[in-house]
């Protein structure tokens, strides 16, 4: 394919572009870690260079949309394209308003306009209005990343996105797993692309064709419920006409390990608690009361706050809302197969177990940490390694489960929080990527923006063991 790519695509990415680049609507059903963001950016660049679009509206979940602006676009947008990239912010400060002015061309301004919004903005009047204005003024490519976020036909954001999507010149959806619970998940994702791609004018006619529905009564209430599916080969034939599908194991030229991150914001309550702990730590430094243990203890407390809890001086646990748990659940919607989830803190492990059990069933999750009975540990590993066993989620503490175990049924490893110890990180990564693993493994870090989470992850990527190096560094660099 003759195009001036900034970075050379893998073969499966070239295949996706050949099939999709000039289509009015298209779906990229590509596993997490196979580079669907790059395919989209290259597609957008081709359309812009061809004169087919003047702008792009990229919509993604909160944990991902900043990465489009800070990571994906700077990495993959060709150097010859001049672009104005604006990140949506609901707080309309003077600075934000000035940035947004770049989205609307004046005189001979021909720069590619790229507006990156989070999916949650489309539940608000303000978000819908500015997106609508943007689409009215441009020949635009509109993209929904992780499109399972619009699978609910009754959700306000789904209705808003489908409606304003009609004004886009080109439309794309991106997801690793378009069906998270049921083939019915496909309807509104495809409706956004074009209401007639699946050949039905309403959800209920689509449901009648592909689902087996029974009328049930519970007390005085009667309702319809889906008890099975039919005609799925026919549905797949329709999807094949406007979608490209690829799994990690099909990508022979992909690296064996792929690293990604999901970024969340901390709440105002978290910011307040985080700030008070930081102030206390800085006061200790000013007074010269610092040792490795005291600094690591304060870093640990800051890390706890990022996950939504902190252990107080009297030994009690204070808990509060955190965006990490919803982000974990959103991430799991995008992956299939067995998953390892590593978390540093017992409180997090129990919270994750509860959430997964409620959504997927108690038989799908097992925990492996200090309090796990020694007699149960081998049985947990055995079930996890059995591809036919319903145990899908291994939720463990890296120091306990990160050594010696073979967990090669997992293709996805998620770090809810990280250890300070580089050796613990490397060992925990190797539970999935070791002899017996025949597939690619994707590692995903969930981190709180502008917190100690970012510094810990950077240190680990730079091969620094924080536990042994903290005294060799400026203490303030770790705390501030």
- What share of residues is helical? 40-55%
Global Rg: 24 Å
Overall domain count: 2
Proportion of residues in β-strands: 15-25%
Low-confidence regions: none
Strand arrangement in the largest pleated sheet: 3-4-2-5-6-1-9
Report the sheet with the most strands, covering strand number, pairing sense and barrel closure: 7 strands, parallel
Helix segment count? 19
The fold-level CATH name of the largest domain is Rossmann fold
Which structural category fits the helices and strands? alpha/beta
| CATH homologous superfamily descriptor of the largest domain | Tandem AAA-ATPase domain
Intertermini distance:
48 Å
CATH top level label of the largest domain: Alpha Beta
Annotated CATH architecture of the largest domain: 3-Layer(aba) Sandwich
Walk me through this protein's architecture.
- The protein is of the alpha/beta class.
- The chain folds into 2 domains: 11-249, Rossmann fold (3-Layer(aba) Sandwich); 257-264 and 320-479, P-loop containing nucleotide triphosphate hydrolases (Rossmann fold), CATH 3.40.50.
- 41% of the residues lie in helices and 20% in strands.
- It has helices spanning 11-20, 36-49, 62-76, 94-101, 125-137, 156-165, 186-193, 203-210, 232-240, 268-286, 292-307, 324-332, 346-360, 374-385, 398-401, 422-429, 452-461, 466-469, 475-479, and strands at 25-30, 55-60, 83-87, 112-118, 140-145, 170-175, 211-218, 221-229, 243-246, 257-264, 309-311, 317-319, 338-342, 365-368, 393-396, 410-415, 441-448.
- Strands 3-4-2-5-6-1-9 form a 7-stranded parallel sheet, with helices on both faces.
- Strand 11 (309-311) and strand 12 form a beta hairpin.
- Helix 2 (36-49) packs across helix 3.
- The longest helix has 19 residues, at 268-286.
- The mean pLDDT is 89.
């Amino acid at each position: 394919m003759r195009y001036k790519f900034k970075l050379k695509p893998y073969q499966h990415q070239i295949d996706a572009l050949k099939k999709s680049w000039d289509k009015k609507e298209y779906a990229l059903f590509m596993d997490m870690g196979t580079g669907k963001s790059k395919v989209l950016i290259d597609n957008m660049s081709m359309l812009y260079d061809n004169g087919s679009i003047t702008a792009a509206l990229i919509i993604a979940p909160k944990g991902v949309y900043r990465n489009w602006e800070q990571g994906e676009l700077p990495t993959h947008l060709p150097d010859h394209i001049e672009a104005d990239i604006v990140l949506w912010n609901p707080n309309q400060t003077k600075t934000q308003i000035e940035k947004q002015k770049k989205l609307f061309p004046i005189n001979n301004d021909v720069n590619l306009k790229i507006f990156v919004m989070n999916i949650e903005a489309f539940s608000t009047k303000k978000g819908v209005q500015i997106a609508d204005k943007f689409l009215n003024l441009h020949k635009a490519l509109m993209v929904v990343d992780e499109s399972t976020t619009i699978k609910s036909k009754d959700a306000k954001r789904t209705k808003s996105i489908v409606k304003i999507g009609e004004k886009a010149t080109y439309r794309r959806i991106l997801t690793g797993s378009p069906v998270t619970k049921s083939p019915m998940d496909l309807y509104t994702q495809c409706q956004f692309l074009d209401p007639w791609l699946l050949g039905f004018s309403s959800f209920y006619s689509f449901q009648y064709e592909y689902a087996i529905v029974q009328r049930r009564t519970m007390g005085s209430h009667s309702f319809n419920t889906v008890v099975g599916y039919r005609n799925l080969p026919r549905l797949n034939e329709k999807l094949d006409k406007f979608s490209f599908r690829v799994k990690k194991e099909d990508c022979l030229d992909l690296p064996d390990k792929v690293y990604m991150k999901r970024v969340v914001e901390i709440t105002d309550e978290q910011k307040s608690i985080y700030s008070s702990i930081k102030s206390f730590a800085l006061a200790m430094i000013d007074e010269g009361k610092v040792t490795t243990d005291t600094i690591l203890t304060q870093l640990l407390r800051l890390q706890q706050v990022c996950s939504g809890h902190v252990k107080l001086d009297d030994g009690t646990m204070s808990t509060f809302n955190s965006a990490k748990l919803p982000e974990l659940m959103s991430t799991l919607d995008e992956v299939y197969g067995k998953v390892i989830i590593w978390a540093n803190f017992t409180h997090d492990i129990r919270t994750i177990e509860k959430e997964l059990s409620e959504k997927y069933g108690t038989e799908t999750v097992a925990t492996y940490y200090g309090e796990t009975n020694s007699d149960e540990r081998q049985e947990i590993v055995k079930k996890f390694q059995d591809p036919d066993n319903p145990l899908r989620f291994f939720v463990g503490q890296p120091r306990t489960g990160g050594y010696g175990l073979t967990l090669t049924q997992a293709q996805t490893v998620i770090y809810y929080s990280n250890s300070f110890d580089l050796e613990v990180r490397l060992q925990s990564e190797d539970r999935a990527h070791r002899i017996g693993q025949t597939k690619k493994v994707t590692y995903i870090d969930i981190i709180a923006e502008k917190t100690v989470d970012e510094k810990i992850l950077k240190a680990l990527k730079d091969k620094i063991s924080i536990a042994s190096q903290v005294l060799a560094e400026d203490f303030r660099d770790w705390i501030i």
